[in-house]
Amino acid sequence: MRRILQHTTLFLLTVFPFFARAQTPEATTQLESIIESILEELGEETDAALIIEDLEEFAANPLNINIATRDQLSRLHLLDDIQIQKLINYLKEFGPALSVYELNTVDGLTPELLMKMEPFIRFEPVEEKPRSVPEMLKYGRHEFLARTLGTVQEPRGYKERDDGTKPYEGNRARYYTRYRFQSGENISAGITAEKDPGEAFFSGSNKQGFDFYSAHLSLKISPVFENITVGDFVVRSGQGL
């Protein structure tokens, strides 16, 4: 039986204002502990990668609790539907909250729960000034993923023939890379590149590198257009194995 080797390297280059304000290792440890406890409470069947991505986003760009939507509150992964509804009802009845301590009066929001929420939320006026494009770019999150997949045993199709030639130009490895930039719900951009097994890689008939490229750009920066999305652009090359 063939054994598959899969190596995944994930680099998350994230700017955490929470860390910057505290500037202590204790603050970093506290946030990591909170995320870990949330994952433990949600159980093994949850999508840990998605949860971590949401929490990292809110740690970098805390959610303004006074204008948060139901969907945004659910992405905190800390509140159930009943708690979300009670929080929304409270804000509608009493107006914007001024601090996390005020939320102690909301039924179902315990001090322990609010302590976990605190790094991911903020309290600003409802009529808060929208972020400028330079601010969106400054406080966005960069993510780079690189993955290599291949077989331990060399397949027959990749072995050299008697005449010294090989059936395929490239090696038997599959390469996958992805870069993504995310700034809240306002800007999302990314590019994905893949190389299939057997395809040449920056050589031979495929000097441009990968044999598959795709890209996307999504903008929500104007009150005139709710959302502008361009992509995915797709470029293919190579032998098409």
TrEMBL record:
Signal peptide stretch: 1-22
Alphabetical UniProt keywords: Signal
SUPFAM superfamilies: RuvA domain 2-like
Name of the protein described by the UniProt record: Helix-hairpin-helix domain-containing protein
Top-level taxonomy: Bacteria, Pseudomonadati, Bacteroidota, Bacteroidia, Marinilabiliales
